[in-house]
Amino acid sequence: MMTESIESLQKLAEQFGKLPGVGRKSAMRMAFALLQLDELDVAEFASAMLDAKQKIHECPICGNLTDEETCYVCCDETRDRGVICVVEDVKAVMSIEKVREFRGVYHVLHGVISPINGITPDKIRLKELITRVGEDGVSEVIVATNPTPDGEVTAMYISKYLKPLGVKVTRLAYGIPVGSDLEYADEVTLGRAIEGRRDINS
Amino acid sequence: MMTESIESLQKLAEQFGKLPGVGRKSAMRMAFALLQLDELDVAEFASAMLDAKQKIHECPICGNLTDEETCYVCCDETRDRGVICVVEDVKAVMSIEKVREFRGVYHVLHGVISPINGITPDKIRLKELITRVGEDGVSEVIVATNPTPDGEVTAMYISKYLKPLGVKVTRLAYGIPVGSDLEYADEVTLGRAIEGRRDINS
How far is residue B164's CA from residue A163's CA, in Å, rounded to a whole number? Predict the structure, then answer.
């Protein structure tokens, strides 16, 4: 096959194939696209990779990613250190930040408890969370793990550990997505929406 | 926004966003995935990029891509230099090579004539084709441009220029894709399939 014959093209496509959601064909298309860029742009791309990998690390306070000493949320003097939002991963931080509603700080677990997958409580950043809550005069912990079975178990676990410390532990509200239609809501979501109903004008 | 705050992550995502079919969200997902790789793998990825860009160039004979002096088809002594398959781009070479049926050589036009897009015959590798056909004792030119209006015009143009040189000019067969269903064939394809019908056992 020809692709095997242009060795450096094949190797490049293999690298793109390592990325999520990139199959063999897309990988080759990306490799071709890269060759279309001029030499300077390719050099910039390559150095952006090396640079990001070298500079980005976990924030020692919250586990968020950063290329500074601590992440930009933990650096920000205007954020309320008394409210910690616990999330599974850095993408969740980005999603919540986009809303521009939450003014507290984060704690990134880098995973959820999942016995089936061998992820026991000691494998995620739970100990760090408990330490933080104990030290920092935290008034509320909002558990924003995903509404999956593992996310729920993790939320329960966190609640069990933190409540004795006298901290308020809350969970994000479940319900019908805004702009959606009842017709398309699954039963579990609809059940939770009914269970969590609120007074109008509340 | 947080993404703007991790500058090196943002920059990396921008680079992935330059690739075809990669939107803002996918680009960020790819940037995250890259950070999951260990340092050595990222270095390998970056060097595969630089390496491919530096080494790969057009084959001076046929316009195919290569990282050697000439491409592997032109190098191959067993290929029939008397039959040239004319294609729009390198991807078409790869598609045809995958079939392992064609034993001639290629000529990559790097485009098709497209007056609307300002691509006149002198902007693609047509002159090189005519020179090759004149010099090399070529018996047949198979025009395998895509069955699009521009591809057709280009095929007609090539045929008009080459026929006077006494060379046989052919075009790939149109018809129902194998394994497909007549029900799903568009009318133009079906029309061409009827027009190009052949005796059974031919």
Answer: 90
Determine the Cα–Cα distance for residues B201 and B179; give it in Å rounded to an integer.
19
pTM, entire model = 0.77
Residues across chain B = 202
Instruction: Quote the pLDDT of residue A201.
Output: 61
Helices then strands, counting H and E runs in chain A, come out as 9, 6
Q: Does A137 touch chain B (CB under 8 A)?
A: no
| Domains, chain B | 2-55 (1.10.8.420), 65-199 (3.40.1360.10)
Sorted by sequence, the CB contacts under 8 Å of residue B141 that are 6+ apart come out as: B83, B84, B85, B86, B107, B129, B133, B158, B162, B167, B168, B169, B170
A91: closest CA of chain B, how far (Å): 9
Dist. CA A94–CA A96, nearest whole Å: 6
Q: Distance of CA B193 to CAs A152, A179, B53, B190, B198, Å? A: 59, 48, 42, 5, 9
Q: Tens of pLDDT along B136-182?
A: 689 999 999 998 899 999 999 999 989 888 899 998 888 888 877 87
Residue B89 is predicted with a pLDDT of: 92
Is B69 part of the contact surface with chain A (CB cutoff 8 Å)? no
> Are residues B7 and A67, on separate chains, in Cβ contact within 8 Å?
yes
Judge whether B95 is closer than 8 Å to chain A, CB to CB.
no
